[in-house]
């Protein structure tokens, strides 16, 4: 009987929400019943219905705490339906409320931010622009402080997003700084890989950590998402991570060496010699890397253009003299013209 009444009220709200509340004779009890009905639909697995009724409830509700709870419920429903675009919108609404709301204590606000970041993982590792989204959110001062205060394990996901996102490499320096600050509190193969490579320049250690990174990704529920393509199952993020991690190793090694043994580099990147040679050839062709492969010795030769400092200074002085002359001429010419007019 109760469920049938709730169902009737839910349908009534869905069909007549545009009518004034006084005409529909809807009061606090009926609005609360709508919340309970939405919750009932959610528990029954009708996430679409639950999302609709929670949306309607928030339009009627005047209790800010209850409205916030309904928004969390709608976010959950959208995630379970895999409506990633809508879920992203609800996540942004929640963030705005959490950042602007007056909480009873800073601890409660901190916990809300941590919960928001955990829920965001479902969206960021499924949405097409998720790798940018997680970087934008987690690197905000308030949320980065929350990670360092009570959720350092989220650094795994932030680190993975930075590694695979070539357009956001500018955040790598800041990420390394945070990893170093939290190394006594949290570390895993992904954060240790970056520390080995960019802090300690330990290429052997980075090689071993890269093997462990693959296993971590495959066993992580967010990073190890599998996609079926015909008869094959792929793990896209695993492939992206390994490719970019090898590029990190290669770029870092090239910065401090002029002649590199391809066989040794292949070993450090966990590749066969032929795979490494082909990979390096494609990289040299597609990038601005000034290098060439000596197939006889099996070495990669880095060519450096030596800058003649003396010639650079002379050229700068020439430019400075030319600019000074033009500036002086522009000041003298008007005065000279005026003097000629007076003489006449």
Would you mind describing this structure in some detail?
This protein is mainly alpha-helical. It has 17 helices and five strands. The chain has helices spanning 2-16, 21-24, 28-43, 47-60, 64-80, 84-100, 106-124, 130-138, 141-150, 155-164, 172-181, 189-198, 203-219, 236-256, 262-268, 273-286, 309-343; strands spanning 227-229, 232-234, 259-261, 291-294, 299-302. The protein has a three-stranded antiparallel sheet with strand order 3-5-4. Strands 1-2 form a two-stranded antiparallel ribbon. Helix 1 (2-16) crosses helix 3, helix 7 (106-124) crosses helix 9 and helix 8 (130-138) packs across helix 10. The longest helix has 35 residues, at 309-343. It is extended. Residues 1-9, 14-23 and 305-310 have low confidence and may be disordered.
Could you give the topology of this structure?
Blueprint: H1 2-16, H2 21-24, H3 28-43, H4 47-60, H5 64-80, H6 84-100, H7 106-124, H8 130-138, H9 141-150, H10 155-164, H11 172-181, H12 189-198, H13 203-219, E1 227-229, E2 232-234, H14 236-256, E3 259-261, H15 262-268, H16 273-286, E4 291-294, E5 299-302, H17 309-343
Antiparallel strand pairs: 1-2, 3-5, 4-5
Helix pairs in contact: 1-3, 3-4, 4-5, 5-6, 6-7, 7-8, 7-9, 8-10, 12-13, 13-14, 15-16
